[in-house]
Amino acid sequence: MEIDILLPQLMPADMVAHWRALQAADITLDSPFLAPEWPQAVERAQGPADRGARVAVLYDEGRAKGYMALRRTPFTAMACGAPLCDYQGAVTEPGVTFDPRLVARALGVGRFDFSHMLACQAPFQPFARGGDISWVVDAPEGYEAYAAGRKAAGVGIIKDLDKKRRKAEREVGPLTFQAHSRSTTDFEQLFDWKRAQYRATNQTDIFAAGWPMALMRELFASRQPEFGGVLFTLHMQGKLAAAHFHLRGTHTIHAWMIAHDDAFERYSPGLLLFQDILRWMDGSPYRRLDLGQGDYRFKRELSNVQQPLNHGFVGVPSAAALVRGAEYTVRQAAEALPLGRVSALPGKAMRRLDLLRGLR
């Protein structure tokens, strides 16, 4: 196996088409974060200065067999578009195996960190240090069949949302749902709400770095049929009650940026908007709504598929690999102790440092 490293914008059209065809052959790879357009969009948003967006092309006997988007920094690599990238993995032909350490060596780095790696990807399994779940709604037969399946599973969230909707309609009047909204006013309001959430919860405002907001605006403006952003809105009494900005692929919509007006909190407008999106997907090219990671009740109850993800790192002999290994040793020792929230502190510190590294 040989590995070539390319700038995303320099991928030839036939390579992009091959990448897309590999995605189309496996629904597990359908995430828009695994599409060839993702690293291209990230590279454009990050501006003319080289911030390390790269594509690793896997060759066997002179023919491209797979692709993986990454970001190279002086000593380490991470997912391209981190911390905004919610899926990582290699998109390859069936049966392709490779040593991920070859990717690190081809990039010229001591290690490659991953945080949302598809757990089903065998080459990366020996390097995993922990796991999580992405919660997915898979509705190939449409909303009514999906809702019936949730009811049969003993889950009451659809019934609860129907009650919330009737309550809202009685008290504030008809609700107005809009898919593929082109309203720049509503788009900007969503991100004003989102940034206010970060401030209120003492989280890092990821959009202050500049390029993440440039990426959002480019994706909002995108007209590509199989990749881009999509704005969904819900209005009550003529006012924006909730807005979602999601990333769309060929058959999957990935839930991404979500916020609502606190004045309508009692109606759970963000959840009603999810229900509207699921109904809207009927007759559309989309069969999956990926709700992402996070052990929230609404994600557990809406989802009918769980996508396991791994975190860890691929290292070659280097100081960078030794440092990461030591960090994981401390983290795993702390998480094994019955110290409640204190046990989680090393992991939180690692995630925060990774977030800041990604924004630079």
How many beta-strand runs?
13
Q: Tell me the radius of gyration.
A: 21 Å
Count of helical regions? 11
Share of β-strand residues: 25-35%
Arithmetic mean of pLDDT: 96
**Percentage of residues in helical conformation:** 25-40%
Q: Which spans of ≥5 residues are poorly predicted at pLDDT below 50?
A: none
The dominant shape is globular
Task: Name the features.
360 residues; 13 strands; 13-stranded mixed β-sheet; 37% helix; alpha+beta
Layout of secondary structure:
Blueprint: E1 2-6, H1 13-24, H2 37-45, E2 53-60, E3 63-72, E4 76-79, E5 91-92, H3 100-107, E6 111-118, E7 128-138, H4 143-152, H5 157-172, E8 175-178, H6 184-200, H7 211-221, E9 228-236, E10 239-248, E11 252-260, H8 269-280, E12 288-292, H9 297-302, E13 305-315, H10 319-335, H11 345-359
Helix pairs in contact: 2-7, 10-11
Task: Explain this structure.
The chain is of the alpha+beta class and 360 residues long. It has helices at 13-24, 37-45, 100-107, 143-152, 157-172, 184-200, 211-221, 269-280, 297-302, 319-335, 345-359; strands at residues 2-6, 53-60, 63-72, 76-79, 91-92, 111-118, 128-138, 175-178, 228-236, 239-248, 252-260, 288-292, 305-315. The longest helix is centred in the middle third of the chain and has 17 residues, at 184-200. It is globular and about 65 Å long. The two termini are 32 Å apart. The model has no long low-confidence stretch (mean pLDDT 96).
Offer a quick outline of the entry.
It contains 11 helices and 13 strands. It has 360 residues and is α+β, with helices and mostly antiparallel strands. Helix 8 (269-280) links the parallel strand 11 (252-260) and strand 12.
